Amino acid sequence: MEKLLQSLKRIDGKGYKAYKDIAGVYQFRDYTLYIDYVQGDPFASPSRIRVRVPQSLARFPADFWHNKPRRIGLEDYLSRRIAAMIGKHSRGIRGTGKSGLMFIDAGGQEILERTAVVVNADYIEARISLGLPARGRTVMGNVAAAMLTEELPRIVADSILFGNIPAKEALSYVELKEDQDFIRAEMKRRNLVCFVANGSILPRQSGVSDKPMAGRVVPFVSPPDLTVDMQLPNRGPVKGMGIPEGVTLIVGGGYHGKSTLLKAIERGVYDHIPGDGRELVITRADAVKIRAEDGRRVEKVNITPFISNLPHGIDTRAFSTDDASGSTSQAANIMEALEIGTGLLLLDEDTSATNFMIRDARMQALVAKEKEPITPFVDKVRQLYRDKGVSTILVMGGSGDYFDVADLVIMMDEYVAYNITDRAKEVARLRPNQRLAEGGKGFGATEPRVVLISGFRPEKGGKPKVDAKGLKTIIFGTSSVDLSFLEQLVDTSQTRAIAAMIFYMAKKYIDNRHTLHQAVDAVFRDIEEKGLDILAPFSGQHPGDLAMPRKQEVAAAVNRLRTLAVK
Questions:
Q1: How is domain 189-447 classified at the CATH fold level?
Q2: d(CA 28, CA 33)
């Protein structure tokens, strides 16, 4: 520590680039400080440091991190605890630009595997970003010394030393994450695609806040005949609604909770923190939300199960367009989801193309099938489950034609769920459908696609250029990738990880031989073996702001690359 103080005293009042002299390793009483990257300007990306506390001093019991779910739960808790202690002990911005700012990637409502904190048998390491302070572009050495030798030690003491943290609070994250993983395994054993625990709070505060709604909220209660019991390893017995594999409709009047339930199911692919209200809303991890996406590019996707016989003989077995319509984009989104792998599709009629979802009897009578290239989803959803083993949960308020193909019909009435499958089937029997099935004998083929090097170049001006801009945009070479319609992408750190994964993929696995599925799988295998740190853009730099995305969003980002070329 004395060495660091001397360096800061020596460069006090010099030009900002003098901060480069403090990069290195410093030993404090309870931890080792690594200053890995020093920014060159007070307005530039913040400097990056690591604080490593040996387990012999941190003294976290092995029971808190001995398996992967518990380790992820503890790492998530510690990142939030460190963020809280930064808020308590740091005085915030002092000087020009980002001067004095200190932060860690602590996440939102989801528990995600992150690079912000690393826990293992040897040490606990926190990756923190900070803005080294300056007045104008002049080093403020005394302020930097206060940040690094006074504020930081207090933050470490109150967040990474077990004896100084609320152990029960930490344990609640650890045990919840283990329970959530248990439910996922139990769902698979029982052939369920989703579990919604009784007492869950599904509505959110607003369209821009993912926190639970307070006040007059109806807690979720399962219909009696859909209730399943589970004995969780930590929480013990819980009851909730189990949605089985197959085709499920969610129906009901407007503003009665249909889309709220689907949104909770959609986000249930991730685990949530204690107090979120959706802690025990668990959906199979590969579920994909499907919607129309006017204007997206599509590159050689086999959409023939849904669209064929286009005018002028346009081939839909390897269909490409720079400006997809609503129905074409929705068809492509489904086929791409099947290509990367999914066992559950989630759809809401409000975000779907009407002509993709249904073609009623009157329209069939007016426009002959040979003149209509679109086969509606209602005629394919049953085949999708029968032939591919892919289930569907669908919000539908405007067409009873889906009653004929549904295995389960759930009605939301003033945010209360009812199983009305028998009533729906009776309605279908008493009011028989006059439309003709148009789906053919089977669902059809899904085609793997090989990614070509020619369309996967991250260079711009001769240098690699890959970056994430907020939650919904990735810059890849000369292209901007729009992820606005990926509704299950929830954290900017995931977007940064996707950008890094695509760059990593370009260097290692895009070789004119790997299919997209194979290339994505290979990246995730490498991460499973070596950790998210392999995505660090420079050797020796440890990024603290990456969070694990899913294969489905990584593949979706590649599919939206406007230079993508495949065979």
A1: Rossmann fold (3.40.50)
A2: 7
Cα 410 to Cα 398: distance, rounded to the nearest angstrom: 15
Q: What is the Cα–Cα distance from 131 to 327, expressed in whole angstroms?
A: 48
Cα–Cα–Cα angle for 259, 262, 265, rounded to 5 degrees = 155
Return residue ranges of the chain for CATH 3.40.50: 189-447
Torsion of CA 521, 524, 529, 530, to 10 degrees: 140
- The per-residue pLDDT for 463 is 86
Burial class (CB in 10 A: 0-12, 13-18, 19+), 92: exposed
Q: Is 279 left (phi over 0), alpha (psi -120 to 50) or beta?
A: alpha
* Beta bridge partners of residue 228, listed in sequence order: 240
Q: At what angle do helices 326-340 and 551-559 cross, to 10 degrees?
A: 130
479-482/473-476 β-pairing: antiparallel
Taking residue 293's Cβ as centre, other Cβ atoms within 10 Å add up to 22
Q: Name 361's Cβ contacts closer than 8 Å, sequence gap at least 6.
A: 433, 434, 435, 436
- The total of other beta-carbon atoms located within 10 Å of residue 237's CB is 8
Q: Name the residue with tokens 């900002």.
A: 16
Query: If we measure between CA atoms, which residue out of 104, 100, 144 comes closest to residue 4?
Result: 144
Kindly report the pTM of this predicted structure. Answer: 0.95
CA dihedral 336, 339, 343, 346 (to 10 degrees): 0
Please identify which residue in the block is written with the tokens 């299919």. Answer: 515
Q: What share of the chain is helix, strand, coil (3-state, %, to 5)?
A: 35, 25, 40
pLDDT, tens digit, 9 for 90 and up, residues 427-453 = 999 999 889 999 999 999 999 999 999
The beta-strand segments (E) located in 112-265 are 117-119, 123-130, 134-135, 138-139, 192-197, 204-206, 209-212, 227-232, 236-244, 247-251
DSSP labels, 14-33: SBGGGGGGG-EEEE-SS-EE
pLDDT greater than 50 at residue 540:
no
